[in-house]
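Board work, copied verbatim: Probable membrane transporter protein
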Amino acid sequence: MQLYLPIAEVSINAFLLLGLGGLVGLLSGMFGVGGGFLITPLLFFVGIPPAVAVATSTNQIVASSFSALLSHLRRRTVDLVMGTVLLSGGLVGSGLGMILFNWLKAQGQVDLLVKLSYVVFLGTVGAMMLVESLNALIRSRRPGARPKRRRHNWVHALPGKIKFRVSGLYISVFPPFLVGMSVGVLSAIMGVGGGFIMVPAMIYLLGMPTKVVIGTSLFQIIFVTGFTTMLHAVTNQTVDIVLALLLILGGVVGAQLGARIGARMKAEQLRILLALLVLGVCAQIALDLLLRPDELYEIEPVAA
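↓ predict structure ↓
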């Protein structure tokens, strides 16, 4: 069934969009990521303009993340104190990222920036996660292997410490705030929840347990992406409501299923699967940038 999307100005199959939303919702529940790193590139691939894809995908991220968060709240695997610190940084970052996004849009460079940002961030994070997760999986299968103890690093020496009881941490509020701010900037520029950056940072930098990381990440993602959606709608008018509704319907259902699957898997297995997914998306976007397009020129209508 073909539907015309008024803001994106393209016709697309409604069931395809429902399937994309369901897939990303599944990943949101399993890995604690908003899924924007996947849904936004997928929207590129099916013909949605990058500016509309970035602005609209944040709607789907809010819905699927909220659906998955409900499951994690029932299992008490959400650190609300940590999530609040991350959120405060994320709101600041979203405002800064929106300023940069609008400036680049005015210069006509926003499409290239979005795609290059995906290649750089996805490639770096995916490779690091894959190497670490494979090493952890190998260690866990050795006879008599013990779980790797948390090591203290420079984060634990910073001032302004508070206790995060659910995570079992006593660390400074500044590193989580900066992690949240970085994710907020990415949310505005790339149309992502930032989970693919935040989840590794929470595990490897802050030292949080993987099961707590997933639910806490979703808590922060909901508010930051909701704020980013509002900013895009007010400043750019690039949020396509019809597209957003179809993605949301699929995402809510997929998120519940993903949360159940994720609860039955080991932490190392979850991280390996997420790393492979991140690298796969990175490779596809890089390939699109390198290959010669079918049409070298595109004429856009000039607003009256």
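The longest strand covers residues 2-5.
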